[in-house]
Amino acid sequence: MTQIYLIRHAEAEGNLYRRVHGHYDSDVTERGRRQIDMLAERFRDSHIDALYSSDLRRAVATASAITRYHNLPVITTPRLREVAMGCWEDMPWGEVEYAQRELLVRFNCDPESWEVEGCETFPQVVSRMRGVILELAEKHRGQTVAAVSHGMAIRTLLASAMGISSKEISKIPHADNTAVSLLNVDGENIEVVFYNDNSHLPEELSTFARQTWWKEKDGIDRHNLRFEPMNPMEEKELYIQCYADSWRSVYGSLRGFDGEVYWKSAVRHYQENPLSLMKAMLGSELAGLVELDTERGKEEGVGWVTLCYMVPEFRGRRLGIQLIGHAVSTFRRMGRSALRLHVSEANKRAIEFYKSYGFRQIGTDEGVNCLMLLMEKEI
User: Do the Cβ atoms of 331 and 295 come closer than 8 Å?
Assistant: First the structure.
């Protein structure tokens, strides 16, 4: 018999930015790194003979929790990857829900009935995951193995091992990031000893403690944003209104605000790239705006965010990070390696927000009303 600890990767960009990341190769977040620390302590005194991981960055980073106290190589294999999501890859979950809600419900509640262009079907996932687990067990008879994989890949394997049909998969809850399952594998038999154990995580480090979608019967998050282009020439009044509200929320008045100047800048950005100005939508409601300057910083490999605005009633709901996620996704496709933005030194809340998500101050510039901090984040 072989014991296999099956571990979900730490919190990654897709979990934080609420985007579809199957084979998309995203990195772990700041919270994810702290989850890895907790996972390392959990396995500090455990006997592990071999360590395997999906070859995606978020899984390999998570495997470092085991190597911290165990002198083992990380053996990577694409067979432990997440489900290949086809044409859904890197889409905002909010867009999927808005445009393809029925398919999303199938994905969560009856995955064998789900299929989109270019995807890996769930029977294929079960076959792949079951095959690699049985192969590892055969190779390491009588030993203990740790294997780092991904949420839906693990969930479908557990369902198969426990004799749970696709239509009943909701009996197996989604797993928190770094959750651990233990399998006893003997020949062709896979016994699930326990699953989805995140007891090593304090509540403040749990991804699920900050989200509610996994509690929903249909698995749909009502807080996922989608993005649609905004033409500033057709929606000038709305653009200036949003920018003015952003200015007033920082400075307490419109002193120094010139809406016409900022609108003309938005028009230029739009003409250079029609996807530079996007409305963040929660369903059919406007929740915010994100504006990018896709030409500035091109030679340095930097992408500039010139406006990151949330409508007042949507503030304080942990939605703003999805705007940053949109910027990361857009500029990463362009080959940029960092984001930059300015934030007023008077906007203490925004400064803390950006710092908490990996931005660091690299300089200062003069602003209209006060000093502007220049912030950068590697992507």
Answer: no
The token duo for 62 is 């998570």
Nearest in space to 63 (alpha carbons), one of 134, 133, 6, 147: 147
Report the predicted TM-score, pTM, of the whole model to 2 decimal places.
Answer: 0.93
- Residue 254 phi/psi, 5° resolution? -100, 20
**What stretch of H or E contains 20?**
none
DSSP-derived secondary structure letter, 89: T
Q: Taking the domains of the chain in order of start, what are their residue ranges?
A: 2-207, 226-378
Q: What is the CATH number of domain 226-378?
A: 3.40.630.30
Please state, in angstroms and rounded to a whole number, the distance separating the CA atoms of residues 169 and 158.
9
Helix (H, G, I), strand (E, B) or coil at 168: helix
Instruction: Give the tens place of pLDDT for each residue, 272-327.
Output: 999 999 999 999 999 999 999 999 999 999 999 999 999 999 999 999 999 999 99
For domain 2-207, is the CATH number 3.40.50.2000? Answer: no
**Residues 321-364: tens digit of each pLDDT:** 999 999 999 999 999 999 999 999 999 999 999 999 999 999 99
